[in-house]
Amino acid sequence: MWDPGTYLRYGTERSRPFHDLVARIPTDRPRVVVDLGCGPGTLTAALAARWPAARVAGLDASPEMIARAATLDTRAEFRVGDVADWRPGPDVDVLVANAVLQWVPGHRELLTRWAHELPAGAWLAFQVPGNFAAPSHRALREVARRDRWAGVLGPLLRDAPVDDAVDYAVSLTGVGCAVDAWETVYVHPLPAEPAADHPVLRWMEGTALRPVRAALDAAGWAGFRAELGVRLAEAYPVRHGQVYFPFRRIFVVARTGARAEENP
Questions:
Q1: Are 34 and 94 within 8 A, CB to CB?
Q2: CATH number of 4-255
Q3: What's the whole-model pTM score?
Q4: Which residues contact 186 (CB under 8 A, 6 or more apart)?
Q5: What is the pLDDT at residue 263?
Q6: Which of 259, 260, 252, 264 is nearest to 124 (CA)?
Q7: Over the stretch 228-251, which tens digit does the pLDDT of each residue have?
C-alpha cells in the first residue's frame, strides 16, 4: 500500500527531477498527454497547466494515490491501472513515466513496445532513480540479509532494476527513436531535527522501504527500521543541522518513429 502523505514528505525534492525531465520535451500542442505512475497527481496537474489544450490523464496502480489525486483542482483525469498493461491510443503525443519504471519488471521491453505503438513523432520521457549502489540502498540490502529477515525480505530487494543512460539510449535508438539521455546527481540538504528519525530513513519510507514495511509485522518492522536507522546515521552524518543526501537519477527523452528527426 502506498501512503501519499509519507511519499509527499519531501515533495519539493521529489518533484524537481520531474520538472527537469518535462522541460526537455519541446512540443507546444500535444493532443493527449499521459502520466504513467502519476502518484498523488500533483505533477500530472502541472502537465495540464503546461499544455492547456491537451487532454491529460494520470494512471497509477495505487487506489490510495488515485483517491488523493481525485481531490485536486485540476482538469486532468485519473484512474487506477497497471502501467504494464497500458497501451497508447493513436493520439498520445506525450508519454511521461516519472520514477515508476524501477518498480515494473520487464520495463525495458515495455519501452520498446511503447516506442513502436506511439504515433510517429510522439515524445516518450521517463526518469528513474539510479542510486541503487548508494550507501542508503547498500545498507537496506545488508540489513535485509540478516538471518532475522532474510527469509521474508530476500526476494523483495533488487540490486539494480534499472539501466544507465547509455543502455537506454542504445535500446531506444535501435527502435527508431531520436534520444536525449543524461544523468544528474542531486544533493538534497534534508533538515535533521534532534527528536526526529534520521531524514534519509524518512525519505526511504516513502519509496524503497514500502515493500519491506508491507512484508513485516509490527515488531519486525520496528526492529528493521531501528537497525537501518543506525546504519544510515553512520553513512549520512548531520552537518550544520542537515543531512546531505546525494541522489543519482537517470533521464531519457525520446522522439519516436520516422519523423523523429524533424523539429517539433
A1: yes
A2: 3.40.50.150
A3: 0.91
A4: 13, 16, 17, 246, 247, 249
A5: 41
A6: 252
A7: 999 999 999 999 999 999 999 999
